[in-house]
## 1
Amino acid sequence: MSKVVIIGGSGHVGTYLVPRLVEAGFEVVNVSRGQREAYAPNAAWKEVRGVTLDREAEEKAGTFGRKVRELKPDIVIDMICFTPGSAKHLAEALKGQVSHFLHCGTSPSRPPRWRRAGPSASTASRRPRSRAISSTRPGGMAFL
């Protein structure tokens, strides 16, 4: 059984993702600040190990990536990364240690002026800069 560590798994997306991972046979560890529970109840949460870490404080101390790595995950899903520096810190700590690292944070990929102005005639028809990649894990769960 593969171990999935999901950072920020009790938020909106994690509320629905975590039970699906459990039901698909993954061992799931939810890393959070411990300040709230999932939005919707699901019996699968009883199978999830919770680990409380304050990401901001641990990153300032330079220990967040190491503490995630010490959980010995096969897969890491990061749902709450907000800065490029934070992403880099975790990626460097996990390099060569996990089979998959999914970054689902909200670091801006375009200059802030584009976000404030909204789409213009020159940018409205552009295709998204990222692509969804689909693969099916043994057990039948498709990841997009």
## 2
Amino acid sequence: MGNLQIPHKFREGVLAKEHCNICGLMEGNEIHMRDQPAEYDVPQPPFVPMKDAHVTPTTRFSTHPWKAAGIGLDCKVCGLSAVDAIHHFPGAVIPVNEPEDPPVLHFNPARIQEGIRLVLEGLGVDPSDHNFNDTPARVAKCYAELFTPQATGWSVFDEDYTDQVVIREHVFYTLCPHHLLPVKITAAVGYIPNGKVIGASKLIRMIHEVNRYPMTQERITAEIVKSIKKLTQGTSRGEAVLLLGEHDCFRMRGTRSNGSMVTDKFSGEFDTPEKRRQFFDLVKL
């Protein structure tokens, strides 16, 4: 690794609310001194650009230290791997925030079938073989089943109930956005109502509504919390989501680990230790 000194470059805008084009941290961080260069520990070439790299804008470090020497390890500041170090250089544009809402997608089974035929050809098999002849249509139908939620009305009832409401051990499936391999997720979802409760089945349907295209487990977790707030019309006093994911992208390839990934998000009254403890006692995933 070599050290490179480069000045921070900020996007035009209001002080302390804009992000550095180099590392993605906010201008208000004390490490960002406009008239002085900042030192970064970066690996030697080759560099692999990551156009969709995500950098957390709240981390406070003066350098980008790697967890250990060598290419391919993670940066302690932004979490990107060392081979993605292109984001440390001037001119790199880094999206530092997720969009406010997921994009509106238009499911296109015909394009999916075209793509699957190309994949089969790329694998060296004959798409007209009887084993593969209907595969493109089957895959398109499978994706439609996974990512086309059933239309439903969102039943919300007036109810004088102010304790936790929790759905636990609900299993659903999705695809990871990086390898399009299956992910099995066991979910526990809860909220604390304040005058309005969500129909039990609708709480489950809401999870499937969120799972409408391949996305990271972290994003699913955050989107479920946002959806609970919308369903309760902003009246809920707290929201809690705990997801346990079994990812084939690292079970059947790469590290070939049997481990599971756990994500959680708490808001409102669930940010208190007592309410979190009650939630974990109820779900016991």
## 3
Amino acid sequence: MFVAVFAFLSKTLAEEGEKANPTMFLFIAPPATAAIAHMDLQKNKGMEMMDDFTWFFVSVTFFIYLLLMRVFRQYWTRRFSITWWAYIFPLSTAANLATIVARELQEPFPWMVAIVAAGIATTMIVVVVLLSIRHIAQGNVPRDENAIRAHYQYLLDRDFAMKKAAMGPASSFDVGPDPEAHPMPVMPDI
């Protein structure tokens, strides 16, 4: 089943006209975190860290990792958004797992996997940070006009609540924020 999924995922996505979503990378983190936690529990009990249970989670983690790397070029065709931060935690967690496994096994191949995983995670961190800074400086983040409106509405509501609290309970200040006194900012064209 895993081989079939691995072999036909990119073909299926292309036929269905779907784009790979950055949040799919979040599926890497749970098995990696489970493997790290189990290894730590085993170590604290004085038992062997690399038992069958650990190997299961390590295998699932790197299967999902390789599966997503197979369709990785589809991710680069997407326009930058805040969801790109979904790459960071899972890739870093997988790199952490690879490093712990390499340290435990003390063999060359796991160390190569750990170095490659750490390099990919570090590269993604740098790329996402730089793209975030660039898009924030250009005023493109957030791009969603509703999110911007909701933020400004929250600020207005908070200011109104603070003024009302300062006036005391017996106040005639219960009419709400005045839209003329606090006009909504002009939205930039995106």
## 4
Amino acid sequence: MEKVQFKKIISQFVEITDAEWEVFSSYLTKVVLKKGDYFFKHGDTHLSLGVVIEGLLHSHYISLAGKMHTKTFVWENRFAGAWTAIVNNDPALFSCEALEDSVLLTIRGDKFLELMDKYKNIGKLAQIYTQRLLKEREFREYSSLALTSTEQYELFKQTFPKIRGRVPQYLIASYIGISEVSLSRLKKI
């Protein structure tokens, strides 16, 4: 069941052959996370790339002062992982935590890279995924640097309509870069 869903997700981006899918799917592992469990933590190595089948994840950085800064949210049918760390064989720079009980289908990063080099369509999937991450990052940088807190909150509501009610207010505030009290004020405007 989960593998069928994973294949449908991949098929939105690239046409994968039956032979490629047979090899690729043989490396998929189901990971079940309880609320509060981590898919990976800052500093982890030997990382995996996954697709959220069910649930909601929260990626975040922790500053040297110990303050959490929300990077993004990952929900059903979306990819989760520290792609830059996987590609460069570096430790993860951020953590990814389950906000809800979650199910992912994962593939080890090193295995994905091996398959990416061996199979044209898996390589194309990696290219599309990288382009998508760069687009999201650029958009996130723009919103953080060029928009007011009010505009960022409105953008959050537009960008994340499917999960808005599932994300605690303190994490929405962290994503925008304001305090929970300031978010409360924004919502009254």
